Amino acid sequence: MSLPEDLARALAWAEESLETAQVILDSGRPAFAVTRAYYAMFYAAQALLSGMGLDFAKHSAVMSRFGREFAKTGILPAELHRYLMDAFDARSDADYRFGGDLTEADAQMHISHAIEFLAAAREYLERKYPDEGR
After folding, report:
1. Is residue 118 predicted with pLDDT exceeding 90?
2. Superfamily of chain region 5-128
3. pTM tops 0.90
């Protein structure tokens, strides 16, 4: 794959966030794991939008434009947009309600969704930026 450097770095950061989410969950801290799972999806969404020449830092802008550019158009499955929004809500509970009522099962669900989200993002970007000469 020959992704532009900024997109490759964003995806690598997303993958590291996802791996960290699992480590944190394995240590018995589901609320903190949810935050990392959300950020894995957020960084992947930023990479996807950046690949279209759209750069946003605000969470609401990333979620809104991801929905408009990828979910509503059918470029990526619409449930990915729902995963991102649900994880944002859970992350807000974790961060602003001191963990909320997030359970290990909640964290595992968001991690599973993040795995699916990152796989779809990577597949899309690899198709958009194929290696030259293959």
Report:
1. yes
2. Nucleotidyltransferases  domain 2 (1.20.120.330)
3. yes
